[in-house]
Fold this protein.
Amino acid sequence: MAELNDKLTTLRGVGPQRARTLEKLGLETLGDLLRFFPRAYEDRRERRTIDSLVPNETVCVEAMVAAEPRLTHVRRGMDLVKLRIVDETGALDVTFFNQSYVKNQLLCGESYVFYGKVGGSLTRKTLTNPDFEKVGTGKVAGRILPVYRLTRGISGRQMLSMVEETLERVGEIIPETLPREVLAEHELCAASYALRNVHLPTDFTALDTARRRLVFEELFLFSCAMESVRDRREKGEGAVFSEGDVEEFYRTLPFAPTAAQRRAVADAVADMRSGRAMSRLVQGDVGSGKTMVAAACLYLAWKNGYQGAFMAPTEILAGQHLHTMERFLSPLGLRVGLLSGSMKAKERREVRRQLADGALDVVVGTHALISEDVAYARLGLVITDEQHRFGVNQRARLRGKGENVHMMVMSATPIPRTLALILYGDLDVSIIDELPPGRQEVRTFALGESYRTRLNGFIRQQVQEGRQVFVVCPMVEENEELLPALRSATEHARAMQETFPELRVGCVHGRMKSGEKDEVMAAFVAGEIDILVSTTVVEVGVDVPNASVMIVENAERFGLSQLHQLRGRVGRGSHRSWCFLMSEAEGEEARQRLKVLCRTNDGFAVAEEDLRLRGPGDFFGEKQHGELGELHVADLGADMDVLQEARDAAVKLMSADPLLQQPGHRPLREYLQTLFERKADTWN
Ligand code: ADP
Ligand code: MG
């Protein structure tokens, strides 16, 4: 009897090697494969005649190979197969790049179904690298075909046949997790129907029905888990910080706190006085002044005789925070220290000793703060900055360093309210929706290549005035290296150095060791580098007030919220600042998206707009995967209404039956139990 837990090696043609390749995609069992949703679909139902084709359409054409395909070697590493195909309405040129083997697969006089994007002109149409199969095979033509994320060593067709075989074997025995009353009330289809049709939809209505159910299910289960965490947390005790008054702290600040900062601090203070452990997310746009909120809370902890830990995702940021905390807190008498991986063993030992015997009140650091050998005399508050870089389980470990520890998480990613409720359902949320007075807007422009020379002139001028420049390139995946339009950071840095021989160009990218990265960043902060070319490693809170220009290459490849984060790296000092979004992308949608940033500097407005244009995918992006219980909603293109509905349903069900004791809720209870067991670190 087949089971969802069966290994993929039980499928036809899947040996140990292919199984290893599939593991790279996170696939080990039949169940994993069924939950590996297509990232797109190709509608290959309609066949078109050659005379009806228009350039830029993606179509299926049935046609006959009119002459023997010709193979030519253009240069080393590049060969072409060219052929002409005909139907009763016209002829078409087909070219294959570096696929010499198709020469022997396409036979003169035989008919095939070709699928691809029409190129050329109306009078001379072409197809490049089309997919094809012999007429009558019916494997990939005449149907809606799923398109999967792939990796080297697995083709789309292999993936398809594995999915087909899996559905044949286990399609009928997929268990239903959702309670019957929830299915009925929200008009959702059964699990087995949904999984079959999300992979092999009979038509687009079936696909929509399937998709809606899967999105609902995912968010529903996730929200139920969140509710149950929240329920347990609300019963958890927290140290009571009854002493002290943050007004005393405010009086020593070099500026007056904004109303929004005051509100966030007041929320936190109320938590820390309540007797329950605080779990609060503080969300505020870049530059909204979250660090001060953290300092106020650390001050309160100290007033009550507790230590505080402030955790940052990188050494650079930890260093910056140390500096800020010393400025804000040392004058009040707090003893502040740093603990980071790059410190000498002897220094680290000394700091650890001071933490253990209570000689330090506040420690700032990287994940070194949670390593096994760090003990605290009396830890009462843990704050993590830019939480996306920390897993939930890392936060949990830090919390475990003391009893009844209060926890605050700070994030600069503005997330629309509905989504925040879902993603951070276990946290209370404070939003800092106001920037300190006198901030300058970053002037933002979306430009094409034709502006390159002028832009270079502008860079030169800014550097002459003493400013510094960020250039950000998208991460280039292995299989994209050949696309000429994409600029990888290292290559682009080389090109920039050639364009600006008189300037100092530096480069940081993800494949460098963290020590090397930090060195380059430190040099940039110190003003020893004029132009810093990087991948998105600069996205997170680095403060370089002297930088006045942010250039993003291939801007169309970034999410709007991410672009907004990047833009937030400039305009942090008194200098007028600019952001240039470089893009040659065609298409109205790409242009519309970039224009949103040119129109507004408000992160929440950007986030809402992003949500409207692209759906919530971006927010559930990769960083959430594998962390909170693997959300795949992004892959499914969920819409906001379903998110809200699913959450409401979860809240309703969990408050009616918190321990899920009703018989109909048993599969749900079992699901949550396995989730909590499997991810004990994360959820407990
Ligand atoms: P972020 O929310 O991005 O972490 P920061 O805490 O780094 O923002 O604050 C950005 C800058 O604004 C810092 O230089 C900080 O000193 C300053 N700042 C914070 N709050 C205020 C305020 N109320 N008035 C003026 N400047 C402020
Ligand atoms: Mg910050």
Observations:
- DSSP finds 24 helices and 23 strands in the chain.
